[in-house]
Amino acid sequence: MIDPRSAYIKDIPTYADINFMSRLEARWAALFDLMGWRWSYQPLDFNEWTPDFIIHGAKQRVLVEVYPIFAANEDLLGRISRAAIGSGKRNDILVVGAEPLWDVRGWCCPAFGWLGELCGPEHGHGWGEAIVHDGGGLGFCHSILQFRNRITGHHDGDSVAGAEGYDGIIRRAWARAGNAVQWRPDEDNESIIAIVDRAVRKASRNKRHPACL
Known about the structure:
The protein is an alpha+beta fold. It has one domain. Helices cover 27% and strands 20% of the residues. The chain has four helices and nine strands, in the order ββαβββαββββαα. The strands form two sheets. It has a seven-stranded mixed beta sheet with strand order 3-4-5-6-7-8-9. Helix 3 packs antiparallel against helix 4. The longest helix is centred in the last third of the chain and has 18 residues, at 189-206. It is globular, with a radius of gyration of 16 Å. Residues 2-9 and 208-213 have low confidence and may be disordered.
C-alpha cells in the first residue's frame, strides 16, 4: 500500500479465511480464484511498498497493487514502479482498480488492469493494459509490449493475445466475486471455472485474431 484508501470500508472483510484491508482487495482475491490463479496476500514488505498480492504464474511471479481507480494514474504507476525497483525487485507489476477494464482501445476484450513490464532498472516499467490472453489457459498479457501469458507462460506472438469472447464470462465472474465477499456467498464458483476452461478450449480450436479490424 502506498496511500490511505478512502474507499475502504470500516469493517474487516474476510475471504478464504483471510482478513483483508478492504472489500475491494477481497473481491479481487475471489476473482483470482474464479480465474484459477494462485495468489498470496501481502507476502512481502519492501522498503517503500508492500504489494497487496503476488500472483504465482507458471514461469514468473507478478506483483499486484489494488487501488480504487477507474482510469490509469500515471503518477501512481510511476511511484509503484520506482518503489519496486528501489527495493531490488525485477518483477512485472499488475495494478487493478475498482473493476476490470471493460473497454480497451484497439482490442476486442476486457483487461484486468494495468500491467507494468520491466524494461530495465534505468527505464522502469512500461505500462499498458493487462488484456486477456488464453494461450495455455486464461491469463493476461501486455497490450503493447510482450504478448506472453503471465499465468501460463505461453507465448506465440499475438495470435492469442486479446482473445475475444470473454467479456461476459469475466463480467459474470466479477459479479460472483462481489457476492463472495458480501452477504450472499456464491456456492457456484466451480461452474465459472468450468465455463472458463470450455471457453479456452474453444478459442484454442478457433484461433481467432484479437484485433478489431
